DNA sequence: AAAATATGTCAACATGACTGACATAAATTT
DNA sequence: AAATTTATGTCAGTCATGTTGACATATTTT
């Protein structure tokens, strides 16, 4: 039972529904913290990727988030005004606004990441060794094949050095 | 490397980010289909859970989706008006409106589930055997521990018989 | 008969997406 | 040097989906 031939047989109900419920709870911990700061998920995403990719360009952030600059503009402005993020001129191209977290921004980003890490850690602790790698591979394989390599590169790059492309 | 002790060491950046990217692509296939029908993700969720749990009560649906009845009301009304869902009086309690998909609703629900199943199937095909179970266990473990048993029960129950509680 | 329950509805509001148009400064091309 | 392209920002309006609070109706339970 449980064949995986594409477009045949029964839908993969368990994974479809587990993805829904797991993702909902996964984002709920940060949501609660953000609520007290009058921020939303959109702020979290921006803060997260700026924290992970210091010096990221606005255009690259838009690519990652796949939202419009108007949508980004709103939340980014609030994060700048409230000193969670700063921007500096691009050294080679002075039109660019390179984004960095402030100490305050880093503290929040790390606090939120810690919550999600704790949840993931508890989940992995319940499972055997190799569960981390299995989860990694499953999730990576779910990503659009055209985008997958870029995503993996982004993750690896941010891990290596806190410095973005260009 | 890669310890999982809660609240120590480095955040689990890879899984945090992969969950973001994987979930985004996972919902994107249905999104495209829904767009043509002038429906959104909210409609998808309602249709999905009604399809999976024929005869579900409005109150139970609200519990699953964790939204207000006003939010549900809007999308449910559209699905009823456009004949994707029907409602019948509860046999024992005539205040209840038990929800069912119509053939048209079932066709759409299955079409959307097929898209997500195909994506999952492609992902699992790239991995070894046991990947399905590993993914299942990881995702289930991510769910709030208080809610986990109920979720697993819901999934198993819907698999067994297309008939909801009560 | 009174109270509780299941559901629906009206009105107002917030968030975070969107489109389209336009503005500015800086880099690049001609 | 002038024209064009690029990176970014902003104004204005719209949409989808969530929220709160108040109230209405039918039905069941006490």
Provide structural commentary:
Two copies of one chain form a homodimer. The first copy, chain A, contains seven helices and three strands. Chain A has helices at 13-36, 41-52, 58-65, 69-81, 103-126, 131-142, 145-160; strands at residues 56-57, 85-89, 97-101. A three-stranded antiparallel β-sheet of chain A has the order 1-3-2. In chain A, strand 2 and strand 3 form a beta hairpin. Chain A is globular, with a radius of gyration of 18 Å. At the A-B interface, helix 1, helix 2, helix 5, helix 6 and helix 7 of A face helix 1, helix 2, helix 5, helix 6 and helix 7 of B. The structure holds a DNA duplex (30 and 30 nucleotides).
User: How big is the Rg of chain A?
Assistant: 18 Å
Helix content of chain A: 55-70%
Strand proportion of chain A: 5-15%
* Mean pLDDT reading of chain A: 93
Distance N terminus to C terminus of chain A? 49 Å
- Give a quick account of the main beta sheet of chain A: strands, pairing sense, barrel closure: 3 strands, antiparallel
* Spans of at least 5 consecutive residues with low confidence of chain A: 3-7
């Amino acid at each position: 039972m449980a064949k995986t031939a594409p477009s045949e047989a029964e839908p993969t109900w368990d994974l479809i529904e587990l993805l829904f419920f797991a993702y909902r709870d996964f984002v709920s911990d940060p949501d609660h913290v953000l609520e007290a700061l009058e921020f939303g998920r959109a702020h979290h995403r921006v803060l997260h990727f700026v924290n992970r990719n210091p010096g990221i360009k606005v255009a690259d952030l838009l690519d990652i988030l796949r939202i419009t600059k108007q949508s980004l503009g709103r939340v980014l402005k609030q994060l700048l005004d409230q000193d969670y993020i700063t921007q500096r001129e691009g050294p080679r191209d002075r039109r660019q606004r390179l984004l960095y977290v402030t100490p305050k921004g880093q503290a929040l980003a790390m606090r939120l990441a810690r919550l999600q890490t704790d949840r993931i850690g508890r989940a992995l602790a319940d499972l055997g060794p190799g569960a981390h790698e299995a989860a990694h591979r499953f999730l990576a394989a779910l990503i659009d094949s055209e985008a997958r390599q870029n995503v993996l590169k982004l993750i690896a790059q941010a891990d290596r050095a806190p410095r973005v492309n260009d």
